[in-house]
Amino acid sequence: MNASVSHPPAPHASPGEQKIGLARRIFGGLSGRLYWRTFFLIVLLVSASLAVWFQSFRVLQLGPRVEQTSRQITSLIDLTRIALVHSAPEYRTALLDELVKREDIYIYPRVASDQWVPMAHTDFTRRLTKSVDARLHEKLDFAEAVNGRPGLWIGFRIDHDDYWLLLDRSRIDSSLGEAWIIWSVLATLLALIGAAIIASFVNRPLRDLSIATARVREGNFSHQLSETSGTQEIREVNRGFNRMARALQDIEQDRALMLAGISHDIRTPLARLRLEAELSVPDAQARHDIVADIEQADSIINKFMEYARSASPVRESVDLPDLLAKIVADYTKNPDTRIRMPRDAEARVMADPLELQRIVVNLIENARRYGRSPGTNRVELDIGFAKRSTEVCLSVRDHGPGVAPDHLPLLTRPFFRGDEARTAAKGTGLGLAIVDKTIARMDGRLEVSNAKGGGLLVRLWLPRDPADSLPPPQL
Fold first, then answer.
1. Which residue numbers delimit the HAMP domain (predicted)?
2. In contact, 395 and 353? CB cutoff 8 Å
């Protein structure tokens, strides 16, 4: 059986909705991390502070800028008037050329046919025109383009003749636009760098704590956090975590020693009881029942020991189909068991081969107890493989009665057993709990669901061997 493992998008979602959903997932993932949340908050705070400071500076410097610009304009107009009025007519052309060469000031006669665009009305230009008019005691015309030529145009009168004074706008309007852009970019870069450094200082101890917690969860108590570096609060947290890890290690060792002692102490009288039953009980049926009960008690002890095992598994490349083929070959010798799996399948995973073998055996034994096909009382299993870019899915499906939907999330809970249809056999309720715990130690995950058409479907997702290449696309 080849299990379907792809999850296509909703058929009614448009491309735009899919992009929006992807953006939300990405942003939600970033905003959910402490590092990026701290980074964004610091950047937002610094950016808001820069914006407020920039606006305040603009408001405060608006008055001095208007005064300075007004003084420059009135001085230029006064000087131009004096130069043109008191110069001889034959020297006026040379004087105008000199103004262009030295001061970049253009004087043009103003005629009625000139097409001019009034200067845009802003707070700065309104104050500027009002100030210039007050200084010269006359009403001047300010334009930002005359006859299609842009610039700062000022219409004034000398005696009874009208003229245009053309100035370079950047010379008079000291907006410092380029300077502001440069300083804004530099301030933003400094804010980003500072936010990254501060967020790193905040996030690094928590990241180390998260890594150490994950190792403790996997049963590795050797990782210790630094108790000498960082702030006092971080050192106290690290010190408390290290003490907790050492206490958990002692508890784990005591538990392992206690379980080993209990297992030994119980199995010894069980062995004697079995021997006495076989030698002392004359009735064959009674002897068979007693031996079966003893074997069941021994099996329960094995399950308890297997669930309590906390050693970290060894990660190595495993040929999954080859491992499954060897296990299936042993089970197919039983006439009441039929297992189907694809031939010539290729899938390599990173796992502990011994632990993986225990997982598969647990799944098959669980199906033999609870997943027999109704009517035939036979065990029929379908095993399939599917590949993703970084994962391999092993699916195991029986054709039994299945499980009530509300019981599915509880199947991996220790000592929980499903409804009566799947609990005709006696067990500990640890089978899938052992599978879930062991697969998690190998960085895998377990999915349990009811299969279409009946039966229980178990999917094991395991890390894919990086050396295992993807199959070529089918044309």
1. 200-253
2. no
Report the CATH number that the domain containing residue 325 is assigned in CATH: 3.30.565.10
- Each residue of 134-148: b (16+ CB within 10 Å) or e? eebeeebbbbeebee
Same domain for 458 and 319? yes
pLDDT tens digit at each of 475 positions of the chain: 433 333 434 444 555 555 555 555 554 544 446 677 777 888 888 778 777 777 776 666 667 777 888 888 888 888 777 877 777 766 767 777 777 777 677 888 888 888 898 888 777 788 888 888 888 888 888 888 898 888 888 888 887 778 888 887 765 555 555 566 777 778 778 878 877 887 777 778 888 888 888 888 777 777 788 888 777 888 888 888 888 888 888 887 777 667 667 776 777 777 778 777 777 778 888 878 788 778 777 777 776 666 666 556 678 899 999 999 988 888 888 888 899 998 888 889 998 888 888 888 888 888 888 888 887 888 889 999 998 888 999 999 998 888 888 888 888 776 665 544 444 445 556 668 778 878 888 888 899 999 888 889 999 999 998 887 655 444 3
The structure tokens listed for 192 are 């980003």
For 154, the token pair is 């000022």
- Give the domain extent around 429: 314-463
CATH label of the domain that carries residue 254 = 1.10.287
Q: How far is CA 426 from CA 122, 344, 417, in A?
A: 87, 37, 10
In a domain, 169, yes or no: no
Kindly state whether residue 408 falls inside one of the protein's structural domains. yes
Cα 44 from Cα 47, distance rounded (Å): 5
Query: Is the distance from CB of 448 to CB of 407 less than 8 angstroms?
Result: no
Residue type, 191: A
- Structure tokens of 374? 């109704």
Helices marked H in 137-226 — which ranges? 169-172, 177-217
DSSP state of 281: -
Domain boundary among 249, 275, 304: 304
